[in-house]
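Protocol step 4 of 6: structure prediction from sequence.
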Amino acid sequence: MKNQKNLIVSFFFSILLLITSTHSFAQGTVGKLYSKGQADQLFGSVLVSKTISSAALTALAQRCPQYIMFNIINGHLFVLNSKREVLSGALSKVDPSQVFHFCSASMILQLIQSSGANTLNVELRQNNMTITAGSLTLEDFMTCPPTCAQ
């Protein structure tokens, strides 16, 4: 009986996750969750990957009211807030023309919660950025510039 109840709760959570994980910048949510297999098929292979702990990324996402930005530059992971202020990385400032990939901070938190993983991989692919945690991958990021969220 308890296992059946857990299964039903998991099913409804999965449905809710599918409904809420759509990409819509106009509505304020940027990012979409895919299975890792779907992401590999849709977005190609990972060129560079950097690992970050769930705890560290949760803390960074909580410092961003709406959007969080990522890039891997010269082998180093950089995380910025929507004002392009460096939250994590070796530099104190980044060039305004440097392209970063951003998504909703809420999608990062959803990925971490849904996956239950202790670590995440921020992945640079040929034309995009993804973040994988366990069997889930977050994609459909936007780039800044040209589209920068404030």
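Step 5 (inspection) to follow. The longest helix spans residues 2-20.
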